[in-house]
Give the backbone structure.
Amino acid sequence: MKTLVDHAIILSRIDYQEADRILTMLTKDHGKITVIAKGARKSKSKLAGGIELFSSNQITFLPGRGDVGTLVSSRLDESFHQIIQDVQRTMFAYDVLKAVYGHVEQGAGQDLYGWLCTTLAGLHNLQLSFLAVRLWSDMHFLQLTGHAPNLAMDTSGKSLEKDKLYDFSFEDSGFFVHPSGAFSADHIKLLRLCLRSTHPRIIANISGGDQLLQTTSQLAERLRQYSI
């Protein structure tokens, strides 16, 4: 069987037998795969450098006859090691990896690879607002997995209006008019901008204060948790 070369991000690592590891990865071209890294836990293993969490790696692997292939070689492309300098960023990064691991089936998820790289890179940049990164990441995850909220119509089918206040229905994945609602036109505009933006730094540069980011980020986080 022919070896394959791809770019990969580790989703989970499990120690196996005396020196091996079972790795589940999201790859750019082959989606979610599981491989065994034989001898990876040995101190002089050539595989050890390219199978760390919070990094992107170039890998060569041999597909298996079943669900588990064999990792032939690995090389670190980019390390997002600064994530672990901040507890919030670390916890969110683990949540993101867990969400992909649980949501994506074997051989699928190629469309999530770019989003995952951008999310980890954003978390790695400690100068970039954590709330902006989390909001951008959650909204794009929802969009890519088909769970984005309706940002055009309210739950009654009417267009969202700039002079009204809204609350949110998780069951209907949409806003509904409420006289003392927590969401205004500014919140909805920010959510729309998230889905149009290619990088969280665009969200971080929006004026309106931390409160706007905080409220929308909390909503997007709850939506992600509700959807998986």
